[in-house]
Amino acid sequence: MLTVAAAVSMVLLAMLVPVAILMRDLAGEDLLARAALEVQATESVVATGSKGSVGIYLERVNDDRGIRTTVLYPDGDAVGPDPGEDRRVLQARSTGLARVDDVDAGTQILVPVSLGASTASSAETPVVRVLVTGPGLDRRLLAGWTVLLVLGLALLAGALVLADRLGRSFTTPLGRLADYAGRLGSPDEGDRPRLPAPVEPDGPPEVRELALTLNRLVERIGTLLERERATNADVAHRLRTPMTALRLRLETAGAAPGDEERARLAEDLDQLQQVVDRIVAEARRSEREGIVAVADARAVVAERVAFWSSLADDEGRTLTFDDRLPGAGAVLVRASADDLAAALDVLLDNVFSHTPTGVEARVVLEGAPDDGGARGGVAISVEDAGPGLPDGVDVRARGRSGAGSTGLGLAIAERTAAEAGGELVLDRSDLGGALVRLRLGGA
Amino acid sequence: MAQLLIVEDDARIRPLVVRALTERGHAVRSEATGMAGLNAAVELRPDLLVLDLGLPDVDGTQVLSMLRAVSDVPVIVATARDDDPTLVRCLEGGADDYVVKPYTVDQLAARITAVLRRVGRAGGAASREIVVGRLRIDVPARQARLDDEQLDLSPKEFDLLRHLAERAGDVVTKRELLTEVWQQAWGGSEKTVDVHLSWLRRKLGETAADPQYLHSVRGVGVRLSAPEGA
Question: Confidence band (pLDDT; 50, 70, 90) for A270?
């Protein structure tokens, strides 16, 4: 808006200033031209009429502002508002030549009128003095400039209104598009992220084009997701079918290869299956997440705490959810609800598995101190009053044999945090035991 | 001993399953395609059909619906995807149970026995219920009732209850539950089982201190059995 005002003002200045100067010059010339006409008319009256008729004529004529006509007779008489002869009048009379001079009051035109036909004696030559005065010129100019100024201001206001209308015609449909784009991954449409219906193209052509492009993009993503779903089903089938064959073969092989050998094979197969399951689960990630992974951290944490509270009751623990974030609305983070729930389950499971029954536990949801990466992020801390973490816990160690391993399954939670633009931090709780904090980027 | 028909396209799995189930005393026939399976099911009138969903010629779900039009033979579907929406459709469309690949012979045999027992007890395929005391579990519909009151169970809670009910009276270890219900033979945490058991207990209206159906056996596992006098 400000830029429009500035631009229009500059254009107006560039146009109006020369126009104003031109107007002033034109007004001056116009006045001089009329003065010349006045001289001619007065000349003829002076040449043919008496002083009396000249006086009547001049009284009538001098109503006009800005031009005052006076006739100076050679006998010293003067008819009109500006009597008095000076050097210029005498010179005009004696030479018989008209002259134009700038005087204090404005511009003075002196025209000698020779009454003596061919003799042109100075005694028979009255001089017509036409005085074009400044004030008249100024007032007209002032009026003109005022009109110009009003016009300029009106143009400026009009330009601003137009710019606003034009801006609105862009911003309203653009706002709707942004709103639509924001809804693309929203978690509020059931358990699985769905693609919303195409947006109705609206507004100026460029915005329509954008809407159509966005629709095509969403449709394309939908197709890709569906194709991926089909591929994943195929991958799962292809990987798990031979696994089934292996397992069955191992089982039906009888005791022939020796029990030890068989147990080792079974163990290998278990590990292989673990890998396959992880691959299949990973391949299905986008199926779970849709276009944008986003979840309401507050809702997910509350739900998981409520879920584990049943076991906490049975074991005589107090498990509390300490929500330190302001407000009561959704707290969106960059992770799918499934992944976040799985990460929390791992952390809570650790508390139940590795602390004696009856030990207090707490889940804290708070704003994460922003250090760049996590915009509007949150931190979810799972704390307990147990013995604390064993020394040398390696977060990244993949839990090779599940619970009880040094990894504590933290790798899953760590990955969820990392993919949400955050991290997993191990610390000591003021409850006395372990603290595992998941920092997640905001969505 | 029962007459079984296996419809499985994979040439490695088919003979293995046939052999393993034969060793367990069943009479087993197998087919590699959906259409051949359909024909065999109609001609041979087996006691039970194990149907793979990923068949080359006709989709397993279609085979099932075609089969259901002419026969009420009990069907166990086998699938590679445990969260496949088609699995739910199959159960709604007339399958009696399912196994998820990779399954073991023990798992498959246990499912077969459980389904046959269910069918046999009610004297026909109409029965799909496991009954323990006043607890009735409709396996294909995935619904459970206690005293004719429907229980609001999560999918995992239902699977857990069902598995325990199929082995009613036996003590089942948490490790076995992790393997069978969570398909996590290698890992998983027993606390996961505990927390689900805790909810199941609540929903059955009992506590660990005053058990009715669910009895914890310290250090061993858990047992589902009808309360005395029920």
Answer: confident
Which residue is listed with tokens 């969403």? Answer: A218
For residue B221, what are the contacts with CB-CB under 8 A and spacing of at least 6?
B171, B172, B173, B174, B176, B177
Q: Answer whether A207's CB lies under 8 Å from A170's CB.
A: yes
List, for residues A189-248, the tens digit of each pLDDT value. 444 555 667 778 877 888 888 888 888 888 888 888 788 877 877 777 788 888 888 888
**Record: contact A403-B10, CB cut-off 8 A:** no
Tokens of B202: 């609540």
Q: What is the pLDDT of residues A315-364, one digit of tens each?
A: 999 999 999 988 888 888 888 888 899 899 999 998 998 889 889 999 99
Nearest CA distance, B126 vs chain A (angstrom): 31
What is d(CA B45, CA B34) in angstroms, rounded to the nearest whole number? 16
Please give the pLDDT value at position B28. 93
- A404: confidence class by pLDDT, cuts 50, 70, 90: very low
The CA distance from A88 to A97, in Å, is 11
A245 chain-B contacts, CB cut-off 8 A: 10, 12-13, 16
For position A231, what pLDDT does the model report?
80
pTM assigned to the model: 0.63
Whether A398 shows a pLDDT value over 50: the answer reads no
| Closest-CA residue of chain B to A245 | B13
Q: Where are the beta strands (DSSP E) in chain B?
A: 3-7, 27-31, 48-52, 75-79, 97-100, 129-132, 135-138, 143-146, 149-150, 171-173, 214-217, 221-224
Please state the rounded mean pLDDT for residues B206-223. Answer: 89
Contacts 24+ apart (CB under 8 A), A37-45: A38/A67, A38/A69, A38/A130, A39/A69, A39/A98, A39/A109, A39/A111, A39/A128, A39/A130, A42/A69, A42/A71, A42/A128, A42/A130, A43/A111, A43/A113, A43/A128
- CA-wise closest residue to A234 among A295, A196, A280: A280
* pLDDT attached to residue A301: 95
Nearest CA of chain B to the CA of A408: how many Å? 10
Q: How many helices (H) and strands (E) does chain A have?
A: 10, 12
Give the start-to-end residue ranges of the domains of chain B.
3-119, 129-224
- The architecture in CATH of the region B3-119 reads 3-Layer(aba) Sandwich (3.40)
Cβ atoms A296, A337 nearer than 8 A:
yes
Q: Which residue in B has a C-alpha nearest to residue A404's C-alpha?
A: B189
Tell me if A335 sits within 8 A of A416, measured CB to CB. Answer: yes
Residues B118 and B130: beta-carbon distance below 8 Å = yes
Q: Tell me what pLDDT residue B126 has.
A: 47
Of residues A284 and A189, which shows the higher confidence score?
A284
Whether the bond between A204 and the residue before it is cis, its omega within 30 degrees of 0, is: no
Per DSSP, A293 falls in state -
Does domain B129-224 fall under CATH 1.10.10.10? My reply is yes
Sequence letter at residue B110: A
Query: CB burial class (10 A; 0-12, 13-18, 19+) of residue A251?
Result: middle
Q: Count the residues in chain B.
A: 230
Return the SS3 of A192.
coil
How much of chain B is in helix, strand and coil states, percent to nearest 5? 40, 20, 40
Q: Are strands B143-146 and B135-138 parallel, antiparallel or unpaired?
A: antiparallel
Cβ-defined contact of A311 to B194 (cutoff 8 Å): yes
Give the chain A residue nearest B8 (alpha carbons).
Answer: A241
